[in-house]
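Hey team,

Filing this mostly as a record. A colleague (T.K.) asked me to run one chain through the structure pipeline before their review meeting, and I want the input and output archived in the tracker in case anyone asks later how it was produced. No errors, nothing strange. Just documentation.

Input sequence:
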Amino acid sequence: MTSDQVLVGVGLIVVLAAGSQLLASRLRVPALLILLPVGFAAGALTDDVDPERLLGSAFSPLVSLAVAVILYDAGLGLDLKRLSGHTRRVVARLLWLGTLITWVSAALFAVPVLSMSMNAAIMLGSILVVSGPTVVGPLLNFVRPTERLQRILVWEGSLVDPVGGILGAFVFHSAIARADQNGFGSQLGQFWVSALVGLAGGAVGAGALWLVLRYLRLNEVLGTTVQFAAVVGAAAACDAVRDDTGLIAAVVMGMALANLPGLDMPARRPFFETLVSLIIGLLFVSISATVTPQSLRHVVLPALALVAVLVLVVRPLVAHLATAGTDILPGERWFVGWMAPRGIIAAATASTFSVTLVRKGVDGADRILPATFIVIVATVMLYGLTALPVARRLGVLRPARSRPLLVGGDLWAVDLGRALNSAGLDVLMWAGAHDQRARIEEAGLELAPGELLAAATGAGAELEGITSVLLLTEEDDFNALASMTLQESVEGSVHRLGPLAGGYGVVAPYTGGDALFSAGLTRPELVRRYAAGSRIVTHRGDGAIPAGHELLFVVRPDGQLAAVTEAGAPTARPGDIAVVLTPAPGP
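Output structure:
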């Protein structure tokens, strides 16, 4: 290909990937629903978007390295200390039972229906066990099921990606050994060699990265660069020694860094998250473009039959076995059985493994990628279109009422939490000091776990059902910095107390955003009035605020919370509950 053709092809892939993700965010649908058809159409309608021609023999290794980066990022989210309580048993069962039953069922069904050899069918079954948070997360954010359901399904999606990646790598090497007509002993030996190469590479990479991140003071950009280089380097080295063992190394590195002591990985990694998001978009468009209409011609109906088995039989069976003997309600159990879309790891591993298996002459290996493509498209579309009505029918939707997180434990902040709770809101509070946390518990309010504020910068806010955050601590700079950080991860509003006018804070006086309450009602002024005898109470009436009282919040009849800010105040209407600050009693 000429340099102009390469430039046009690569440019189109990048633009289509970013444009599809942008459109998906505006439509509030999983990016997969846009990326897959866009990539497929681009590959079918133009010769420019053809990654195999653009990159030649480099395409498959680059896909493998890109998947390694995604799996490393997934591994970083697997801090096992956060998987506790009632979710642990259900998630653990979903992983091992779900992986085993899905793998065996898909493989046995694929042999006669897709006319595959047992080797190719076992490979396809191992690929289809994965789901992934990049697909499940957006679906759950749109549906908004109960917190317990969201926590279980997000954890399952996060954990099954690396499990599926490791299983796929093991099955791949076993299939290669059988294709080379080696005996069982030789196959077992090759299996363990591959496992040891991946584990050793991951251990060495994790150890080196742990030392660098712990003892060198790296900023966010350089720290991300070092992580990216370490993952790609370790995965490439392992793949060079043993094909596709880099996926194992990447998962090991991510999980090790998430759980090793002495290293506090940041809850959010915006630069790395941007990199992973771009890689996902590029992979989906590129892989979809390699699926030709001709390759789908004799695969569509058998693959749809496989989808029917996975959706209607296998997943409900897994869900009921995983939740048996637990406190999961029947409606929740059925919803777990109706949520298992396939995503980027299935597509990428199918693309990576199928090429080598086809080259080795494995019968039916050429149908692995198109069958996986159809399963991904069908499951995402099916669950995307039906998840909300199914959740509504099963009664597992989260209440529409606001759930604010109040950060701070001063006396007036606790009284504010009590007032909002009395107005019918499900209030969650967090404080750092021991005496403040004790005050929150004594008030009968729900106290968030100690790590929630850090977790809320990632998926924590979604998992706890938080719809808004009120930053009410006595540290103006903390309120300002936390507001800037949380704006990107909390779906609703994030408000902070206004700093002292003319103050000399490091950050607070210079950050934008609307501060809570009317002009002049800053934190010091609020504390002063409270010390003088003012109190925070609720007022139910015809919308009129009593004389001398200052409006702070309005709770609408549907449970939505509207805050007074320096930019303006909501209008209290009949039926609303006003949260007001009373005047100080006279002498």
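Quick notes for T.K.: The first helix runs from residue 3 to 27. The beta strands are 404-407, 428-430, 446-447, 468-471, 494-497, 515-516, 536-540, 550-555, 561-563, 577-581.
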